[in-house]
Amino acid sequence: MPSQVDLAIINADIRTMDSQIPKAEAMVITNERIIAIGSNAEVEIFQSHATKTIDMKGRTILPGFIDTHAHLVGLGRKILHLDFGNTASVEDALRLVKEKVDESPKGKLILGYNWDESNWETPRYLTKEDLDPFTPNNPVILIRVCGHLISVNSVTLKKLDLNLDNPGIDRDIKTGEPTGILREIPIDIQKFQSDEDDFSTVLMEGCRFANSVGITSIHENLYNQQLPFIATYLRLRQRGELTVRIYLNLEAKLLDLLAGLGAPTGLGDDYFRLGGVKVFIDGSIGAQTAAISEPYYDKPDTDGLILFDEKDYTFLITTANALGLQVSTHAIGDRAIDMVIRTHENKSRREFVNRLRHTIIHAEFLTSPLIERVKRLELLLLQQPNFVHRWGLPNGMYDSRLGPKRAKQLNNFRRILDAGIKVAFGSDCMPMDPLYGIYSAATHPYPSIQITTEEAIRLYTIDAAYASFDENNKGSLTPGKLADFVVLSQNPFEIDPKELKDVKVLATYVGGRCVYSNH
Ligand SMILES: [Zn+2]
């Protein structure tokens, strides 16, 4: 026994997510790790050595949630800028923009996130005609919830100076003029910001929010234009101010750099670790850019876009395999997923799939034949349970984009788990909220989607740890593992799944340190 113990937790209702000891009352923490867990009596001997003891008065404790697909930089910025998440109409959204313009100096970028026209009374995209009348002096960039489509005003269009042949520029059928709607065109936001956001404020806001919803670890996906944030992450890490453990994925464009450094997946420490590379194969269903095999129901002239050439993708996978880098591939439509699987199925590459735990991010439109092939390859899926409540309910966005028959085949968690495929949950920050995701998956009306509360929690804890090679390091409350845990207002295992949406996070602990408390 150590001469001093940092923290003893007693009288708790601990669900460990460790099948060896699924329930416990007490645990003891030293040097960020759990050293004992069991009944109050079993840990009593440590208590007299504890610097601090917390009586949980019967409250429920779970392992901290691990969000395997997030964009913390974007989230921090969303908190600091306009968020259209709760707007109900075009007018609502425009009102927010107008208020922001009124309080902003001339020339300052008006940045907005999270708009989703499927929530609006009249579902349509915003155009420059909507924005121009009250934004003559400020660039406006409004990013759709999926991140694949943006609406801008004329000031921004002028500043971007895009090549008008770019097929991502939406144009007026009559005049040929750009409408202000841009698809799949990456924009360097830093270029527009005169007074740059303080980088660490952005990250700290993101971490604070993550902790408030019970998250202790994330897979962060940085875009190339966000690379300066790596230095900020490292600085916060050095100062001991990171309250979320970061597993960092970089864009595939940086593969050469990583090859030069010889940096493999896993480099780093428990707070900041290199994940692998991330690559986009297609867009999103909401923006009608996910690559599907039959045209869209509500836009029959398109079947989406393949954004990454198959030859280049093959080269990428081969190189990453040689370097020991995990590849996480964004693929949503069945046509895009087919391309990913086909590349990994090649004889010389298939053995790496399991060894490097290559993943498909989203994998929404996974048909039965694709499920079989994913299973055979042992590809890992990083999926988003929040999507099925947000867009996958009857008459939801999936229905209008794909028609009800195909929409029913999206995010079939029940069928995917029954096939024996490894899945880890994440939110993609739409919204970042594991309990909402667990509620969404556990209450979905379609039997091909609905899973149990326990399964959903597993996918957000112990099975999510697997995605970063951390199943022996975190994800369950087990002696030797990191003391990352969350205190909840109710025991999710003992309530009707419908009540999951009312469960509150009361406190979040990372390495035995309280990083969030709301009581
Ligand atoms: Zn994403």
Brief digest:
The protein is an alpha/beta fold. The strands form four sheets. An eight-stranded parallel beta sheet has the order 8-15-16-17-18-19-20-21. A six-stranded mixed beta sheet has the order 3-2-7-22-23-24, covered by helices on one side. The chain has a six-stranded mixed beta sheet with strand order 9-10-11-12-14-13, sandwiched between helices. The structure holds zinc ion.
List the helices and strands and how they pair.
Blueprint: E1 7-10, E2 13-15, E3 23-24, E4 26-30, E5 33-38, H1 40-47, E6 53-55, E7 60-63, E8 65-70, H2 72-80, E9 82-83, H3 90-103, E10 110-115, H4 128-131, E11 140-144, E12 149-152, H5 154-160, E13 169-171, E14 178-183, H6 199-212, E15 215-221, H7 228-238, E16 245-251, H8 255-261, E17 272-280, H9 310-323, E18 327-331, H10 334-345, H11 347-355, E19 359-362, H12 368-377, E20 380-383, H13 385-390, H14 397-407, H15 413-418, E21 423-425, H16 434-442, H17 453-460, H18 462-466, E22 485-488, E23 505-510, E24 513-517
Parallel strand pairs: 1-6, 2-7, 8-15, 9-10, 10-11, 15-16, 16-17, 17-18, 18-19, 19-20, 20-21
Antiparallel strand pairs: 1-4, 2-3, 4-5, 7-22, 11-12, 12-14, 13-14, 22-23, 23-24
